[in-house]
Amino acid sequence: MKLNPFRVDPAHPFQLVKFLSVSTLVLILGSSILLSIFMSNYAKSALVKKNTAFAQLLAENLNHQIYRRFTLPVVLGFGRVELKRQDQYERLEQVIESTIHSFHVLDLRIYSTQNEVSFSTDPEQVGNAELGGSAVQSAIEHGVESFDLQNKLSALGALFTVNLEPGDVILRTVYPLRAEPDLRRDQPGPLLGILEFSQDITSDYVAVLHLQRLIILTTFLGSVALYALIFFLIRRADRVLEERVRDKDRLERELLQNEKLASMGRMVASIAHEIRNPLGIIRSSSELLFKKEEDKSTSKAKILDAIFSESKRLSQTVNDFLDYARPRQPALEDVDLEKTLGHVIGFLTQDGQQSEIKVKSELTSGYIVQGDRDLLYRGFYNLVSNAMQACGQRGEVIIRPLVYHGRLAVSVRDTGSGFDLKLLDRYVEPFFTTKESGTGLGLAITSSIFESHGATMLLRNAADGGGEVVVIFAESA
């Protein structure tokens, strides 16, 4: 079946929210990347504008310095400019070097109006007529300046390059050199030549890249943190809702079970009441007749003994049914569990039939809880008796005091095979048993006894093997 994210599953009502949260993350990341690209491009544009403005100022300053400090003095002194003369060339070189100092100028050339290099920071280029490109030709023909940003790396490549080398980002400026107009003229002076120089703006470009990286990283981390928070809240809400659904199902099952048990309890109580009296007569009569038999080995004596034993077993079964159907309310008083369990151990080990099973209690005197002495005796009697039966022919039952989450508790642990973990929830169900004989009411009655005292009975397996039942009382440690 194809999953439809827009179809709400009752078992997972936050499925749509999860889908929307992932979609929101993708949308946020996408929009953030677009925003960062826009902001970085805007920053790059501002960078180009700033450096273009500085380049224009530098070109204007060079035009002014060359005209005032070189062209006019040379014309007045020699009549005309001849850069082929060594003294004029060196004088122009001094003017230019003093002007471009500390402006990160990589190279500078001055072209004649015939597109021939008249001056260059690289003397070998002087006289070359092939270096001027379209920008120089346009400046000669139309007298316009131009600015060209040259990046050796692509925009994406520069973003992921850790260190940019000097000269990776260059701004090339082409500017027409003109004679400065006097105060009587508003028109630009005649064209003297074309100025072309390159500036290294890599350091400024690196600052823009750092800003771009910071924007992308901050946006990404913020989006991931927001998504993680949303996802955590959704998971937590989903878990809480799942637990509530599970508790609701459990309560519904318990309610249905209690309704069934209430109906059955009324029926069982009525039937058990009718059976109890004649069963008592059969039991006492068979016991009396068995005692009168002198020869206990006769078939008659054996039949009487079997009748007595079975009637005794059936009487106990009837009592179990009645106890479960009509539980007794506890009469609360201070109960010393050390003494109560001492009586339980003494009674269960007095007949010597289970001498291979050792029962040891580590409770100390004064381990007091509020409860009904008789009911607590019966509850622990059932637990210790079951633990001894779980040990088989030989083993050990240990009773220990515990503190469970700040509350008094008693642990009854055996060295048997332990509980079947798949059936843990069913052991306390009425009429459920793993034994070949029995009514399956023992643990159900025991659990009911402890619940009437506000206590909880926890079934689990011990870490070193065997089963363990922990009775957790309401009293604080």
Element layout with pairings:
Blueprint: H1 15-78, H2 86-100, E1 105-111, E2 117-120, H3 134-142, E3 146-151, H4 155-159, E4 169-178, E5 191-200, H5 202-292, H6 299-325, E6 333-336, H7 337-349, E7 357-361, E8 368-371, H8 373-391, E9 395-404, E10 407-414, H9 442-452, E11 456-461, E12 467-476
Parallel strand pairs: 7-9
Antiparallel strand pairs: 1-2, 1-5, 3-4, 4-5, 6-8, 9-10, 10-12, 11-12
Could you name the key traits of this structure?
five-stranded mixed β-sheet, 477 residues, alpha+beta, 2 domains, 9 helices, disordered N terminus, five-stranded antiparallel β-sheet
The CATH architecture designation of the largest domain is 2-Layer Sandwich
CATH topology of the largest domain: Beta-Lactamase
Question: Roughly what is the average pLDDT, rounded to an integer?
Answer: 80
Number of helices: 9
Structural class: alpha+beta
Q: Radius of gyration in whole Å, from Cα? A: 51 Å
Major sheet: arrangement of strands? 2-1-5-4-3
SSE order, one letter for each helix or strand: HHEEHEHEEHHEHEEHEEHEE
Overview of the molecule:
The protein has 477 residues and is an alpha+beta fold. It has 2 domains: 201 residues, Beta-Lactamase (2-Layer Sandwich), CATH 3.30.450; 148 residues, Histidine kinase-like ATPase, C-terminal domain (Heat Shock Protein 90), CATH 3.30.565. 53% of the residues lie in helices and 18% in strands. The chain contains 9 helices and 12 strands. The strands form 3 sheets. The chain has a 5-stranded antiparallel sheet, sandwiched between helices.
